[in-house]
Amino acid sequence: MNSFAFVVNLSTIKQLKELSPAMKMLPDSFIKPFLKSHPDFKIFRVKKIRSIRAKEIEGYFILSLPPKDGLQENKDVTADKLISAAAIAEKLEARIIGIDGFIPLRKKLKLPLTTGIALACWSIFEAVYRATKARKADLKDLDLVIIGADSALGRLCARKFSEHVRQLVLIDTKDLPAAVNNSDIIIKLDGSHNGNLNIFELRPKAVICNYNCKEEKGYSRRDIAIINAGQIKLPFAEKLEVKTGLWANTVSAPLAETMLLTFEERFVNYSWDENTNLDKLEEIADIASRHGFEVWVPEAPVL
Question: pTM to 2 decimals?
Fold first, then answer.
């Protein structure tokens, strides 16, 4: 049976407890000595993930454990950690390794790599399209701003949306100009902070789409739609040994992309660098449909 590996970086004990049911009931005073006496990674096996095409695969979650000295680390997996995790994945006979987000590497891994950028971008586009459709609006008549456009995902989203909206504004996470308040759609990527984003100053019926960001407060503004992108619903209920923190039977877009490539036996570097193109978006969307994986946007159902 073909298998994949997926790396999850943990920077705090709280995150470890959220993802690992076995750790949730243990006190921190027990977990800290555990971390000091164990390897830097913890592995969970995922058995028999199914496709509607009667295919089965299996995989491994490789959890990069919190630092032993208790210090906080960057939320992203580092290149060194990824190389170490890939060596573990090879020993487990995984055919491809996935991570959440782009990582510059000094050298290519022996295993094929995907970052999930293609399916993440597609899920964001689909979420925004559904939300505007539900409001009986057309993207070509709307202005859109991307906060966090300085990332690889942000640049790919910019290329995708530029073909469909009236006006596109790109800004980084350090500065939120007045353009945000003059846009119909605001896309926030990968932890971009609120800054001076004031929900009460936005255009009427604006749509906020979050990807890996905390939800906005201020739901008293009932005309504003706040949606969360990046969730993919699996075709069958699966028992995952690691909690995803998402809706039941849903996984993140990067994890879903890794699964889909395994189903297709596409053991190649896929969305692994900043040159990931728009053709990959269409291709991965077709692959997802073929295997019964669905972009899941509970705030904006399929119309």
Answer: 0.88
